[in-house]
């Protein structure tokens, strides 16, 4: 008798897709807190400030005015207009409202980008360490992430390193600047190298600019603004970090055809757009002055300098990250295995961090300390480190 495979099984495309390790750390932190322990929370990635009042009032106004109905799935006209203006003026990507789409966070933009370009059996080049969900987004397309060590690429040449890892099946490059978790900010000339490689090999670039407003050293540069790149780049943005809007799930992407048609289909059939009143608040968020954004950046810089100095003072070597809001020191002094190092730090010093290995093999030996928290919280963490490592 032949045994028949059960119909109660998942689609194969989910076989290689993991579920965030970070959630497990969050659960441990909650258990410690429930037991009455104080935990220094450096495991997160949320801005230290609440969503500014004008943005909240804008959403409330939209609700009161009954902006509670279906909206065009790709975004309301005033939002797409405002996004096109922002992209043209700030990112130097000449844009019309047809080239932008509102998404449910940067996450949906990235999901849509990979789904739009990757077929089963394709490969995607990913600078590593990388933001953990990226490998799963790629695997969910039954494609393979090819990890390219960022530090050796910067040392030995971007084109030479990309050439070393590319395969005939390579379809796209994931290009995140500023990078989570390393804080690396690629320079304009590095963007030019990635662009030259993409053009030469006829590849698509999935650019992730979630932290575009958080650059302390150097300047943010959008790869799609280079000649010949807008047509082969899908650039993904979020309102989460700049405007303190993580829970609103507002994001957007810039793309030209044929990619925009694909993104429109993916957004239509997954969420049918971003909630209508949230889109109205997004329009008002975009009115935030550059001075206010710059002030917050300076507030983050103070935090960065505090944590970096604290880490180095206890012998955890840490370069000042040029962007984003994470420090990524070498912690081999605590333990060579970053998961064990994170467990030791949580149990012995009650400091919650993320093990570097969850960001790819290139992150091993490091821990990610998210410093988008209050200054007294950072100071308390540094004190706890000093007591633990003295
Ligand atoms: C590198 C990077 N890209 C994209 C995102 C997406 O953010 P969201 O889905 O909140 O917009 C994040 C969030 O942490 C991130 O770190």
Short account of what is shown:
The chain has helices spanning 21-34, 53-64, 77-90, 105-117, 133-139, 150-156, 158-165, 188-201, 259-270, 276-285, 290-313, 338-349, 375-389; strands at residues 40-41, 100-104, 123-128, 144-149, 170-176, 204-208, 233-238, 250-254, 326-327, 351-352, 354-355, 367-370. By secondary structure, the protein is α/β, with parallel strands linked by helices. Helix 11 runs parallel beside helix 13.
How would you characterize the overall build of this protein?
The structure is a single chain. The chain is α/β, with parallel strands linked by helices and 390 residues long. It is built from 13 helices and twelve strands. The chain has a seven-stranded mixed sheet, with helices on both faces. Helix 3 runs parallel beside helix 10. The protein is globular, with a radius of gyration of 21 Å. The N and C termini lie far apart (68 Å). The protein binds pyridoxal-5'-phosphate (PLP). The site of pyridoxal-5'-phosphate has 13 residues, from helix 4.
